[in-house]
Please model this.
Amino acid sequence: MARALEPLIVGRVIGEVLDSFNPSVKMVVAYNFNKVVCNGHEFYPSAVTSKPRVEVQGGDMRSFFTLVMTDPDVPGPSDPYLREHLHWIVTDIPGTTDASFGREVVIYESPRPSVGIHRFVFVLFKQKRREVVTPPASRDNFSTRRFAEENDLGLPVAAVYFNAQRETAARRR
Model:
């Protein structure tokens, strides 16, 4: 499983967003049903405007999961002083289903990077029980680590990220 963490370490997701963890559940994130998110791959912002399908493969129907999506590179990767920007939170996702069966606590906000290449990180936590999560007051200056600590979620069980940068008019064609 250490191999599964390599791209997260190289992409500085582990370190800047998450502490090292032992992946124990498979999470598949796909936009428009067929564009599967793989660590470090690039997506155009125009391809990720609608929320993705996030499948939890593993666990069982008695297990519940929380999904967090953030951008640790706001406003730009060279000076991310608003780190992290929160894009989405879904709680109470039953194991072996997808995020649409969970409770959307913070509605999906599509990625709109303005400067540089941004990482968009999906993190999955296994809940100890059904959760009552208070949404943060602001999407900026969110901390996945602090959120996990405040909600007694422990370490993640899965994570994946993609890159995106601002699209020029020429790139959209």
